[in-house]
Design goal:
Chain lengths: 116, 116
DNA sequence: TACTACACATAAGATACTAAGGTATTAGAC
DNA sequence: GTCTAATACCTTAGTATCTTATGTGTAGTA
């Protein structure tokens, strides 16, 4: 990669986690690797951000967790999207799109008159 | 507008301010209105976020300020982009684009294998 | 046997928001 | 004349979410 990984914009981690779990149940470490991989190593999820985020989402009822043994023979806490989590995923993807178009408009807009 | 204004994602205000000032000098209140306007009222800048942000940017040497009388006859602190600010604007627009493509990749990516 | 990858967790610190309040001036409505 | 809305600035307290650093333990491999 040309650049080092970017730092996360606060508020964008949740949707990444929800989206990853939208593909099926997974555990923290794997979620983090998947995000990093799917963004071409542009986004790196710090563990200090990841695990608290998973707890938050679970407390909100968006995820459910259960300890399981992974194929590699280790204990891992596997998270699954709840129905509410799936709704939240949709909502957050939509919100992100809206945010991006708003930003795009601002960053491309040309002033009609003076800014003052 | 169909929705109420969205809350800012932390870290995106600076580039909005820099971009606005890229069109020419302006003062805080006008910058805030311009951003709100150019995003079609999607983004609303709270004053408690705006004024500290302007100070931050000035302390970093990206902006310069001077009190002036506006055409409406009021005193206003008019900010101007410095050369460093103009470089920073370019850099932050680029960084934002990179972030958006990373997010897009993650939110559209399809897993090749299992996520676990 | 040492090191890397896997897998979880937490604490301290930084930062940048929101919400809520405050000051003061100008213009227009009533 | 007085009230209100819009303009223009500022600050504080509270909150959320990140980074950095540290800690635990296991499994595989060189």
């Amino acid at each position: 990669m040309a650049h080092p990984p970017m730092t996360l914009l606060k508020g964008t981690l949740d949707v990444l986690i929800l989206k990853t779990l939208g593909w099926g149940p997974s555990h923290g470490y794997a979620i983090s690797r998947w995000i990093q991989q799917s963004t071409g190593d542009e986004l790196q999820i710090e563990e200090g951000a990841l695990y608290p985020a998973l707890r938050r989402l679970e407390e909100k009822g968006l995820l459910e967790s259960a300890w399981q043994t992974t194929p590699t023979g280790r204990e891992a806490k596997v998270y699954t999207l709840t129905a509410a989590g799936r709704r939240q995923l949709k909502a957050e993807v939509t919100a992100w799109s809206r945010y991006v178009s708003a930003m795009t408009r601002a960053l491309e807009a040309r002033p009609t008159g003076a800014i003052a």
